[in-house]
Design brief:
Length: about 350
């Protein structure tokens, strides 16, 4: 009876203590979040409950397993597996905790500054640095745990290290594009060429940078399509970044009208209409005749807005308003298309005919 009861008490008690400790820590974090509502760190740290439970369970079982006295032939293997799982759970916990700290840092920085460009830059850097640290920790910890805890794999590890130079050369040649994207991702992370949240025009598509990793970049196009491109593209080819230097932008509307258009009245009506628009930031506006052709004139209306989304809406509204105003009050100013036959040139006597006469 003792052979069954003792393992149940030891292992079951370890799991119960693990769950109780995890719940206690979660209650403390919840209490801290209510006491300090100005910071989100405590509420964000509650996301580490699952990896914390895994770490406490595996570490606790690793230390209490000998007391269970199961007398199995695979005790050493079981202990090594528990130790490996504890190490991986610790890495998982570290990554989750780092994510919570980074998120809280970004929120606090965004609440203290009105410069959205700096906030997007910090967001991009934190995201890419987190990915680098996660990848390095996962690969390194797994390799070290396997080589240290499982002696049979040490010979394999020594052989791999001995041939690391040759493998590195072969891998470098075979993965040139991948390595190029990794370097480009690091340049974007610590440079200022493009950031998460920037409005860009790439390959004729207008959209917002939604995600940046070490190998690819995702642009959410205006119609909710996703354009995925290698990050090396943004270090080797030209593209438009409408958020560079600030989110403010000036939009233009071109109208093709008749020569008789009352330009002064059209300009005054544009200014009056812009004053009624909440998406016009009031920085700049204008209306000019930019070209003249035998059949009409080209009028350009310009207006400023706070960001690319608002300037698109403002341009569409201004175009609709100006055309509607001309159609109601000055229909003669709209472009005309001649539909009658052109008059023939009058007949004239040629020099040869005049001599004959």
């Amino acid at each position: 009876m003792q052979e069954v009861l003792q393992p149940l008490l030891v292992l079951g008690g370890t799991l119960v203590a693990t769950v109780a400790t995890g719940l206690l820590i979660d209650r403390l974090l919840r209490y801290t979040a209510k006491r300090h509502p100005t910071t989100r760190l405590a509420s964000l740290l509650r996301r580490v409950q699952l990896p914390l439970q895994a770490l406490l369970a595996t570490a606790g079982l690793h230390f209490t397993y000998p007391a269970a006295q199961l007398e199995s032939r695979h005790d050493e293997v079981i202990l090594n597996v528990l130790a490996t799982m504890a190490i991986l759970a610790a890495v998982w916990l570290t990554v989750r905790a780092a994510d919570a700290v980074a998120k809280n840092t970004l929120d606090q920085y965004a609440s203290r500054t009105a410069d959205t460009a700096r906030v997007r830059r910090l967001h991009t850097q934190l995201t890419l640095v987190r990915r680098i640290i996660t990848t390095v920790l996962a690969v390194t910890t797994t390799a070290v745990a396997m080589l240290v805890l499982f002696p049979d794999l040490r010979t394999l590890g020594t052989s791999l290290l001995a041939s690391a130079g040759v493998i590195g050369i072969i891998a470098g040649v075979a993965a040139q594009s991948t390595l190029g994207n990794l370097m480009a991702g690091l340049q974007i992370a610590f440079g200022d060429s493009v950031k998460i949240g920037d409005t860009v025009v790439v390959e004729g598509e207008w959209g917002t940078v939604e995600e940046i990793t070490l190998t690819f970049l995702t642009v959410r196009v205006w119609d909710d399509r996703r354009l995925t491109m290698p990050v090396s593209y943004f270090n080797s080819k030209p593209y438009e970044n409408w958020s560079k230097g600030g989110p403010q932008i000036t939009g233009t509307v071109f109208l093709y009208l008749d020569h008789s258009t009352p330009v002064a009245q059209l300009r005054a009506h544009l200014h009056t209409y812009l004053r009624t628009r909440a998406d016009w930031d009031g920085r700049a506006w204008n209306l000019l005749v930019t070209d003249s052709t035998p059949t009409g004139i080209v009028v350009r209306a310009s207006m400023s807005a706070r960001n690319a989304d608002e300037v698109w809406t403002l341009r569409c509204a201004v175009r609709e308003e100006l055309l509607g105003w001309l159609a109601r009050d000055h229909a003669y100013a709209l472009p005309k298309i001649p539909t009658t036959a052109a008059a023939a040139a009058p007949a004239t006597a040629t020099p040869a005919t005049a001599v004959a006469r």
